[in-house]
């Protein structure tokens, strides 16, 4: 039982650290890159990633908090999988810039 508890705790904090990474990345990007990448604005993505990170820290991955924790993780993963690559492409001189 102890091993399972540690695995759940590791998943919980791995999600929270992923959210923190996404928030810091969103914070460090140029504001005009978001519009050039045809994505929502920088403040909106900072709110989404920051709010999701707070939710993942406050609520547990296991138990009743999962109903809030999982959508927060999905929001962070959308940023990392969809928005972040577009921002990197635009700022490196991709076809849209």
Automatic annotation (TrEMBL):
Keyword vocabulary terms for this entry: Membrane, Transmembrane, Transmembrane helix
InterPro entries in the cross-refs: DUF2516
TM annotation in the entry: 6-24, 44-62
The protein, known as: Transmembrane protein
């Amino acid at each position: 039982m102890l091993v399972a508890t540690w695995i759940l705790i590791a998943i919980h904090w791995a999600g929270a650290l992923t959210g923190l990474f996404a928030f810091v990345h969103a914070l460090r990007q140029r504001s005009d890159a978001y519009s050039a990448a045809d994505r929502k604005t920088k403040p909106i993505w900072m709110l989404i990633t920051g709010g999701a990170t707070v939710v993942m820290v406050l609520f547990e991955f296991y138990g009743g908090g999962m109903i809030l924790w999982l959508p927060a993780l999905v929001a962070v993963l959308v940023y990392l999988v969809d928005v972040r690559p577009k921002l990197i492409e635009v700022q490196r001189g991709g076809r849209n810039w």
